[in-house]
Design goal:
Blueprint: E1 12-15, H1 23-37, E2 44-49, H2 55-68, E3 72-78, H3 81-90, E4 95-99, E5 108-115, H4 123-133, E6 148-150, H5 154-163, E7 176-180, H6 190-196, E8 200-204, H7 223-231, E9 236-240, E10 247-250, E11 256-257, H8 259-272, E12 280-283, H9 288-296, E13 301-304, H10 308-318, E14 322-324, E15 330-332, H11 341-355, H12 359-363, E16 371-377, H13 388-401, E17 406-411, E18 417-423, H14 427-444
Parallel strand pairs: 2-3, 2-4, 3-6, 7-8, 7-9, 12-13, 12-14
Antiparallel strand pairs: 1-5, 4-5, 9-10, 10-11, 14-15, 16-18, 17-18
Amino acid sequence: MKERKFFGTDGIRGKVGSGQMTPELALKLGWAAGRVLSRSGTKKVIIGKDTRISGYMFESALEAGLSAAGLNVMLMGPMPTPAVAYLTRTFRAEAGVVISASHNPYYDNGIKFFSTDGSKLDDNLELEIEAELEKPLVCVESHLLGKVSRIEDARGRYIEYCKGNFPAEHTLTGLKIVVDCAHGATYHIAPAVFRELGAEVIAIGDKPNGMNINDKVGATSMGKICETVIAESADLGIALDGDGDRIMMVNSKGEVIDGDQILYILACDAKSRGVLRGGVVGTLMSNLGLDLALQALEIPFARSKVGDRYVMELLKELDWRIGGENSGHILNLDHGTTGDGIVAGILVLAAMRRQNATLEELTSAMEMLPQVLVNVRFEGEHDPLKSDKVKAAQAQVESELGVRGRVLLRKSGTEPLIRVMVEGDDHSAVLAHANLIADAVKSAS
């Protein structure tokens, strides 16, 4: 397949005002996408965004480009990524657009698209859009220009959708839950969902100002929620990322429950109810402990490349339903078409209620092997992974780990980072191995 110039593993993303993330590109992208997506169907596109200050600018630029291509635009304002996917389906829209850089700092932003069925655009459509970007922008005749409206009840629609994933015979009454919204798109959604299901909710990270998204809060910065769960004697904590498609959890002891453990809970619950179809898809980053725990239950396990789009591809290929990443992207195709942090949290809480068990008890049979991830930033166009020094360091570590460990080196699909992952039996040895390889990457950068 032809290599994509603009789209990465999760749409287009970068620092605002430089590279690809400029208002000029957003305008042209809206037009190009409109040209591709308007060839049939409703000629209607939904736009949602997270809470970054730059979202207003990119929203206006995309709106203008789509209108110039003849598509009608429906604005949602700040809403989680999975809400855009859901409402794209329910409104039978041609596509949904999300303006977000997910877990990145506020000075980054991104644009990604959902197809009419709420799934991410396939590679061929993205290539078609990129081909249109190379052409001069031509506006349709005035009487064909797209109109713009606002979806006034988007928040209420999505809250009801989320609640509908919790079994009607149970409630969350008696549970105290800390909910960390990362000052992001779920700030006005997630606390309401869990409160309306009966829980006592302590909300943190729920006061966005345009520049504090993911800042020392949320699924990528778990210190605050761990402290709050302990301080408030809460039963558990739920941490979401800036656009709401990731979840990490915290048990009553203040211990982090990551995406691999959440997958284990969901698979066990589905098997106990006789609704598990096939097995579970993880990624190359998934902890070996997940693989071993699922083996003990005779639940098949398969690994995809890193990235929720690749998890989705393998789920569809195998005709399985449950998959995800240790970073907290959780897919359950019986409950949605994309990663949804709020819904994943609801499904874990449903398993707790069905089994009358705590979060600690649901994860007790899964032993997580020590795993260390070191991110190394690099500059320029060169590839540090091709360095002989890096290859030698990796070979040395793999030899010392033997069959009870793994090494994975890969480029981030969203940032100029090399991710160094090492896994084994002993944490101190794993950490030393990871730092050895990271130092080699730094020297090659």
